[in-house]
Design goal:
Blueprint (H helix, E strand, L loop, with lengths): L1 E3 L2 E12 L2 H19 L6 E13 L5 E14 L2 H11 L4 E8 L2 H29 L4 E14 L21 E15 L4
Antiparallel strand pairs: 1-7, 2-4, 2-5, 3-4, 6-7
């Protein structure tokens, strides 16, 4: 079943460089702290930290010449407009570096539940076809295995220029599947 993606995950990042490792750490930490405080003032978008990394650049002699760092802040919401507006408001020094869409666990569970009856019906029809093909009168289920999977497809720009304007967000769909596999006993007489 094709299910509309109802969750957006926006990754914002700040990338800084300086001659001092401590300065890069401090500036990135302050940028994230400020953004988190601003973001936590609303309740429509979940906010959490992503990667935080600081690394050196060296010259030909192996001497550290400067430090560069990158820190990420992740926004996740089922309210696309709120996520877009919040991402735009956080602005400088954070910029949007990734947008991904997915189906929420709640929507996936509902879709799988709806598909379960179809999967069970298909299993019963195939089992009955085996009964008829081999000349038996009925079948009994020995074992059943239920599986489900979703395939995510989230086309989104990997890097984006960020300004104070919100970014229009539109999710795609995912394929949600349910499968039923089993073993049956073929019976000569109905029980």
């Amino acid at each position: 079943s094709q299910v509309a993606q109802d969750t957006v995950t926006v990754t914002l990042s700040a990338q800084l460089n300086d001659a001092s490792q401590q300065a890069v750490n401090t500036q990135l930490s302050e940028a994230l702290d400020s953004a988190v405080k601003t973001a936590k003032k609303q309740d429509k978008v979940k906010v959490y930290s992503g990667n935080f990394r600081v690394w050196p650049f060296t010259d030909e002699d192996g001497k550290v010449t400067r430090w560069q760092g990158r820190a990420e802040l992740i926004l996740e919401s089922t309210d696309f407009a709120a996520a877009s507006e919040l991402a735009a408001s956080l602005g400088d020094p954070l910029s949007i570096t990734n947008i991904a869409f997915s189906v929420s666990p709640e929507r996936r569970a509902k879709a799988e539940e709806a598909l379960l009856e179809d999967a069970a019906s298909a299993f019963r029809k195939r089992a009955q076809a085996l009964v008829a093909a081999f000349g038996f009168q009925s079948y009994r289920i020995k074992e059943l295995n239920l599986g489900g999977a979703g395939m995510e497809y989230a086309p989104a720009p990997r890097m984006m220029a960020a300004d104070k304007a919100s970014v229009p967000l539109e999710g795609n769909t995912e394929t949600v599947t349910v499968s039923v596999q089993g073993t049956i006993y073929l019976q000569r007489e109905s029980k």
